[in-house]
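Ligand-bound model needed. shikimate-3-phosphate.
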Amino acid sequence: MEIGKITGLKGTITIPGDKSVSHRAIMLGSIAQGTTEIHNFLRGADCLSTIQCFRSMGIEIKENQDIVTVHGKGLHGLTAPSDILDVGNSGTTTRLLSGILAGQEFDSKMSGDSSLNTRPMRRIIEPLTQMGANISSIMRNGCAPLYISKGNLHGIHYHSKVASAQVKSAILLAGLYADSETAVTEPTLSRNHTELMLKEYGADVSASFKLGSTVATASVKPCTELFGQNITVPGDISSAAYFIAAGLLVPDSEIVIKNVGINSTRSGILKVCENMGANISLLHETRAGGEPVADILVRTSQLHGTTVEGPIIPTLIDEIPIIAVMAAMAEGTTVIRDAAELKVKETNRIETVCDNLASMGCDITPTDDGMIIHGGNPLHSANIHTLLDHRIAMAFTIAGLVADGITNILDSKCIDVSYPTFYDTFEDLL
Ligand code: S3P
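Prediction:
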């Protein structure tokens, strides 16, 4: 995809449904009793992988225009897949599904694409094994393909080294099938969609913070049944982030982004924008599907550098590539730290962000857990090596809108993972 410099993005846009919420709605709908209707479901490749996995385990899932209907068969209603479950590029499918598969009576295998099969799975193998699950890395390298067979699960209190919603969710989902309460404590609160949605489906979940610390604990009691729900998925703030950045960076712009999920465990990007001097307002704040939502009004702003570190990191982990692009265009220095998790995303995002921004003329230095960006140099066009990482493709599309010359996003089709209509959304702003 070739991107040129523009001015004056104006209009109102709607962003597709949240990826994390869409995955969870299919998973919980499949193991609930009765019908679940999901409105504004994200038809991105990752969520379609989740649908396909559950279809392979006997769940009927119908896709109509705007509604996905899941005919759940209850906690013990899944059937053995006849083949290896294909999780594609999706870490969320792999890790959360591992928690559910650990509670099943049948054996299963999961495998994904070449990126997915290099991502760390010991982080879920270890706690699930402690719970009594039989789960192993088939190549014995701590990665997928994974093999899971029947085990007897018991409740544990797991202290996770990383603040990861995927790890927390895998444990809580396995906890539904355990013989006593299961708890997870993480160093900083990660996105809490699993806890919120489990409650909606009828599970006995609690979540707490320790006063004076950032440590967060979530727990679930063993469950006899979940019940099908009507779920409206909010717009994905991780997808909205590209248009927030476009509105701020492209001269003479004013964009309203409708119906975006602003759950505080996801909305760190808004705080960072505010710290950088952005002109952003939230309008029409309300709730949808148990989650807070709002319209976001963005106007072109002169940004300045900031420091992004500490407990805010898990609330914006997927937005760091686009934050780095904003920082490249901001006056002064931006420091991003405490974000070593970037190294184990779809690509090593410390490397992919730094290499590509440097190739556009940005003064940027990678660090062990983040990057240092001296902003304000004009960006120039380059060939952007996405390495098939959807968030790199989208973040550097925005960089291309403000760079001199024609920026070429290589393998831009990888945006299908989370936002297949990303380039169409721009049509509404021209
Ligand atoms: C996700 C959690 C995050 C995020 C990923 C989706 C989820 O990963 O990066 O895109 O839906 O739970 P971690 O929780 O492992 O950081």
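The chain has twelve helices and 23 strands.
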